[in-house]
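Might I ask for a little of your time on a matter of protein folding? The record follows directly beneath this note:
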Amino acid sequence: MHGRQSRTQGWRYTLSLPMLLLLGLLGSAFTLPMSGTASTLTFTNFVHHSTPAVLWNVMIDDATANLFTVKVRIDPTSTMIGDILGLGFNVAPTYKALLTASDIAGTQVTGTFQNTGSCGQGCNFHGVTPNTFDRLVRIGHQGTAGGLITATTFTIAPHGQTWDTSTFPMVGIRAQSVGLGPNGGGGSAKDTSSTRTLITAVPEPSSTLLLALALGSMYAFVRRRSTRAV
């Protein structure tokens, strides 16, 4: 009886070891390697230079390799909506020297401008301090014939810049046709924010951990067998 029980325990350990090794190898095969930890820069406390006020969500992240992704939308809780015409942003001096118009891309981007407060017809920051931005990105076209643009996304080449709160110290949003939803109204928005928070995502446990557990189990198993042999 004792011999059968020992053989049963031995099979249990023998079967658990390949299973743990398999989990580790599968984790290594199907888990994408993390080359870095994604971070998101969020802008809040917008200063509304005109009324009625629109509530904005503006985030910039580096989740995609070799790209900054800018995401702008009207907050779902905002009672006012509008048609986004442009987004202005200031950048760190070293980054500014490297940026070109071709570094900015998006399906709704219709133009880029440098060191100005105007981004085409109906899109300006007159009356706002500061009223110029290092880069101004034009979104869509003036008028609501094609519907209001209430959210937009575009990318910016990072040029290897260090990613922190100083990379983008300020953003500004220009919108027209501001009013109550769903079709907006005759209002205008020229809003800016320099209040920003950088949040770094906590990485998920690596598949290497699973493999380490399997190897640890192998060591414990061999050590147990050796002890019994003695």
Summary: The helical segments are 2-30, 93-96, 207-229.
